[in-house]
Amino acid sequence: MIGFGPQRTLAAAAVIAGALAGCATQTPDAPSASPPPAAALPSSIPARDLVGRWGYATYHKEADRTRTEAAARGQCGQPYVIGAGASGGVLMHLADEAQQQELQLKGGPGGKNYVGPTGPAGDMKDREIVSFDGRVLVLRWIDPEVAGRYGTGIYVRCAARA
User: Fold this and answer.
1) pLDDT tens digits for 1-37?
2) For residue 160, what pLDDT band results from cuts at 50, 70 and 90?
3) Cα–Cα distance between 61 and 147 in angstroms, integer?
């Protein structure tokens, strides 16, 4: 049987004690070194600006946008209604959902704006607000699969009822 001399045993014990002491100084309640989550950026578009009656159509190719905008304008006889939500959002549909639900307007990096369920901006259920001038709203789905099925939505504000 090979044994360690007293000096080697003491040295090994000191190394193990030092390693265990380092572990003992970390407590489960100690704050983590990770940064706090980033605060949500506000949207530069207020929800109230989207509330109203809209003609709606979609396109898949940018070359079809002008024609699609005209088609959306023609849908004002049966408008898509974006309502005001109880919590400051807007009432709209998500992909494949029959019922409208309250969605939030969210700001994102680079000045982008999104509309979608509560959560981080640019989530897979969100739509990016590609453009909005008060009269025409263009929304693109973030999820590529959903975008492939539904295309880019274009909403044209309908004239006020007489």
Assistant:
1) 455 555 554 444 444 545 445 544 444 454 445 444 4
2) confident
3) 12
Separation between Cα atoms, residue 149 and residue 162, nearest integer Å: 36
Does the CA dihedral 102-107-111-112 come out positive or negative?
negative
Start-to-end CA distance of the chain, whole Å, equals 103
Cα separation, 5 vs 77, whole angstroms: 96
User: pLDDT-derived band of residue 105, with 50, 70 and 90 as boundaries?
Assistant: very high
pLDDT of amino acid 12: 47
Partnered with residue 156 across adjacent β-strands are 55, 136
Q: Report how far residue 125's alpha carbon sits from residue 42's, in angstroms, rounded to the nearest whole number.
A: 18
State the Rg of the chain over Cα.
28
Residue 154 sits at the vertex; the CA angle it makes with 151 and 158, to the nearest 5 degrees, is 150
Q: Give the pLDDT of residue 3.
A: 53
| Angle at CA of residue 92, ends 114 and 88, nearest 5° | 70
